[in-house]
Amino acid sequence: MRQRSLVILTSILTTGALTLTACGSRDDSGDGGGDSGDTTLTIGVDAPLSGENSTTGLGIQYGVQIAVDDANKNNLVPGVKFKVKALDDKAQPATGQSNATALVGDKNVVGVVGPLNSGVAQTMQQVFESANMVEISPSNTNPTLTLGKDWQTNKQRPYKTYFRTATTDELQGTFAAEYAYNDLKKKKAFVVDDKQTYGAGLASIFNEQFKGLGGAIAGTDHVNTGDKDFASLVTKIKTSGADLLYYGGQYDESALITKQLKDAGVKIPLFGGDGMYATTYIETAGAAAEGDLVTSVGVPVDTLAGAKAFVAEYKAKGYKGDYGAYGGYSYDAATAIIKAVGAVKAANDDKLPDTNDLRAKVVDAVQKSDFEGITGKVSFDEYGDTGNKQLTVYQVVKGAWKSVHTGTAGS
């Protein structure tokens, strides 16, 4: 998913030209959980760790932390220990770009998991590309990030260093439209978005796919992030005769929209994407959320046998945030980077190359990923997109998200 605001990248950064010679630090103090003499490498994390979107952002941070703890405990890369460096982008593209520069400038950082938001990713990709450092997002779903701006007619990968473990909105929007039309039997949808990269893109795909299936669009509108009063929008939806509201955006605004819509007597479900899939949506909307729906990437992590230990550890540690949306995909993203380090080391006479060489070789090794993660098989196609195309529809039932349908678009 995800984005808060679109900032156009106006200059090409030259962070790749930084002179970095050391490949890691000696961990004599036990920092990161390593034995004395082990080399310590850092996995960077960028996500909103405070403010809006922090519920899902913290799930990313702690998903990575558990992956690092497990790798260290199981000695996944002999002679190498890992630690986490998490930076808060506050869902702001400019902050994300600054964080990317800071992570690249840290000679011990070998790869980064994040960001949460697609709009933030747009400002970070060139920074990591210039430094030949891998970036794996567990949550970005905008197609342009891997397929280029003309992805609908001419797919071209913009950045070889960018990957994601989340499938794209091309599939998510289609999956939602199919479920709304075929399963919910909705025939007249009102479509709203928050004007951001993620939200507008997802809403546009739903719009086209819903019409293609035979549904009618009762109307369209846009809101601004941070808006609180949606009285005018509610009136438009009420008079349109729509039997479904589809929303492209985050839980911050959509929770208020559904509450104000139901308070006005409009008893139609609000259906959105993974940007809404958080406990905060239900907590904010209260009883008005009942019956609302979202799509999210993959299979419910609580149902996966391979994720059982992960879920138990997350709960036992009392970590904040919500692991349900992206925690498992963050774990697998971090593991892909760690396994790539191991592959590079094994192919280099069991030694780590210097920083620049290590980073570049890790990118190549991540591209060749092929292992069973806690969310399923982890692999990437020629564009850096995940091979896992599974999606799930969740509905609010008795005050909690309940999975009601899992599959793939067009199945």
Jot down its keywords.
Rossmann fold, 6-stranded mixed sheet, 12 helices, 38% helix, alpha/beta, elongated, 7-stranded mixed sheet, 411 residues
Polypeptide structure, described:
- With 411 residues, the protein is an alpha/beta fold.
- The chain folds into two domains: 15-166 and 303-379, 3-Layer(aba) Sandwich (Rossmann fold), CATH 3.40.50; 169-297 and 391-407, Response regulator (Rossmann fold), CATH 3.40.50.
- It has helices at 54-73, 93-105, 118-130, 144-147, 169-183, 197-212, 231-240, 251-263, 279-285, 308-317, 323-346, 355-367; strands at residues 25-26, 39-47, 80-88, 109-113, 134-137, 162-164, 188-193, 216-222, 244-248, 270-272, 293-297, 370-373, 376-379, 391-397, 400-407.
- The strands form three sheets. The chain has a seven-stranded mixed beta sheet with strand order 8-7-9-10-11-14-15, sandwiched between helices. Strands 1, 2, 3, 4, 5 and 6 form a six-stranded mixed beta sheet that branches. Strands 12-13 form a two-stranded antiparallel sheet.
- α11 (323-346) packs across α12 (355-367).
- The model is unreliable at 2-22 and 26-36 (pLDDT under 50).
SSE layout:
Elements: E1 25-26, E2 39-47, H1 54-73, E3 80-88, H2 93-105, E4 109-113, H3 118-130, E5 134-137, H4 144-147, E6 162-164, H5 169-183, E7 188-193, H6 197-212, E8 216-222, H7 231-240, E9 244-248, H8 251-263, E10 270-272, H9 279-285, E11 293-297, H10 308-317, H11 323-346, H12 355-367, E12 370-373, E13 376-379, E14 391-397, E15 400-407
Helix pairs in contact: 1-11, 2-3, 5-6, 8-9, 11-12
